[in-house]
Give the backbone structure.
Amino acid sequence: MLREDHKTIKHEFDLWHIVKGVKKRMLQSRNTEWVRTVSNHLWYCVCTCDGDALLLKDKWMSILHHIINVHEWLSAEKMLKCEHEL
Ligand SMILES: [Zn+2]
């Protein structure tokens, strides 16, 4: 309905529901130790992306590099390294 009848309305997802969904999926797995870390990372990404969806995606995906001990990469557009000190 928003897409067809209200094209001028900019729709954004509710972060609380997104984090809840990610946590629910992670809690269904056996590895629950990462639940808090990953949900904190998602909150951090949303709160520091300044509304930039591409930056949000790059920040969110950075956790995949970080958890395998890779802190710089080329496969992103706006974020090419972790934000912690290297
Ligand atoms: Zn890192």
